[in-house]
Amino acid sequence: MKRWGLLIVLLAVVLLVLGAGPAAAEQAGLGGDVIFTKPVKAVVFSHKSHVEGLSMSCNACHDKLFSMDSGATEKRADFNHKSFDKGKYCGACHGKTASPMNAQCTNCHIGVKGHAKLSKPVKKP
């Protein structure tokens, strides 16, 4: 199960690096990938893996756990692991009905180097 999660995240990162990730997901109406840079740089969240891969509906998270407004959640002072551990944000599912957040950190945390790779402009032939 953990390997599938890692595989999904790696696939999302590869697609994002190739320039197909967010565009393909947005075209499918899934919201694309979200890359959080606060409180740490950087965490990637794949709408596609949650909506398509896990058959979750958008309203499972929006607007109860996460605002639909881009960047709004990241601005909240309590958007951190301490709140997650209390069942807020990602912690509403992860650690309860989904994989725990205290294992396989790189499933979500891509770090500064990962963020730098994703931020580079894609060269088109």
Give a concise summary.
Helix content is 35%, strand content 6%. With 125 residues, the chain is mainly alpha-helical.
Describe it.
With 125 residues, the protein is mainly alpha-helical. The protein has one domain (2-119): Cytochrome C3. It contains 5 helices and 2 strands; from the N terminus they run H-H-E-E-H-H-H. The model is unreliable at 13-27 (pLDDT under 50).
The strand order across the widest sheet is: 1-2
List segments where confidence is low: pLDDT < 50 over at least 5 consecutive residues: 13-27
Query: What would CATH call the class?
Result: Alpha Beta
Principal-axes shape call: globular
Written as H for each helix and E for each strand, in order along the chain, the element string is HHEEHHH
Question: How would you name the CATH homologous superfamily?
Answer: Cytochrome C3
The Rg value, from CA coordinates, equals 14 Å
Give the number of helices.
5
User: Can you tell me the CATH topology?
Assistant: Cytochrome C3
Class per helix and strand makeup: mainly alpha
Please report which band the strand proportion falls in: under 5%, 5-15%, 15-25%, 25-35%, 35-45% or over 45%: 5-15%
Supply the CATH architecture: Alpha-Beta Complex
